[in-house]
Amino acid sequence: MPFSASVRVMFYNKSILDQYGLSVPKTWDDVAKMAKVLKQHNIAAVGYDKSFDMEWNSMVRAAGVKLVTPSGKVNINSKKAVAAAKTITDMVNNGEALTAGSDIYGTTNFVNGKTALSFSSSAGISATKAAAPDGFDWGTAVMPSYEGKNATMLAGNNLVTTAQASKKEQAGAFAFMKFLASDKQTEKWAEATGYLPITKKAAKSASYKAYLKANPLAKAASDSLPGAFSDTAFLGYQEYRTDLLSATDAMLTKKTAPKDALDTLQKQTQKIVKESK
User: Fold this and answer.
1) pLDDT truncated to tens, each residue of the chain (277 aa)?
2) pTM beyond 0.85
């Protein structure tokens, strides 16, 4: 059962936007226009983590496509999925976007002023605060819309109890799980970590709304919930995730064309799904 949840949000450098007369982008078209302006000043519009898989997945979902459907249909190399990947890789290849590489997370580039925007888990706000130099002026916003819709991928942590535990151990574990999932505790955890409450009552409570008002950097995550989604769960999902990261790495480091990388991933995923049935 869920314990904490996070979504992808956009970080933006207020100083850079103000210096060049730019607004916080609301769409990916806005990001592309911003990139043309900032490239002239040796600033990348976007800083990704080492991989761009979650941003790509969110764009594809906004375009109305599920990479793997509950029935097991795989749409990884669909025209819309390829187009979304090309939007990202074109910007990287043109020097309009950066990936973190060995730094893994885009935080370093962002707080050092090398990128105007960065995409991160809402739980990464505290780490960015800690890494930012004194006076660093930044904010958060929902992910840019793509093809007219907003979507952001859910992540987080789950709680489990296993069949191997004794009945007494299972009862104790479940009691603790219920405690952690209670309205009061999930709100307390969210306020302390940057994750989101997992109950509607906690998310809509007066005290949590007061917290968001006092902590504006946390508000974008809450505002993103209407467009939040999870991938379809299936046996072999972790193997698929490994292949997905290899595909994004191939597009970035080997300059593999998005269509070719996603054709390969399509076949790999179809095999995984077929063998899991």
Assistant:
1) 889 999 999 999 999 999 999 999 999 999 999 999 999 999 999 999 999 999 999 999 999 999 999 999 999 999 999 999 999 999 999 999 999 987 888 999 999 999 999 999 998 998 899 999 999 999 999 999 999 999 999 999 999 999 999 999 999 999 999 999 999 999 999 999 889 999 999 999 999 999 999 999 999 999 999 999 999 999 999 999 999 999 999 999 999 999 999 999 999 999 999 998 7
2) yes
Taking the alpha carbons of 50, 262, 54, 231 in that order, is the dihedral positive or negative? negative
Residue type present at position 52: F
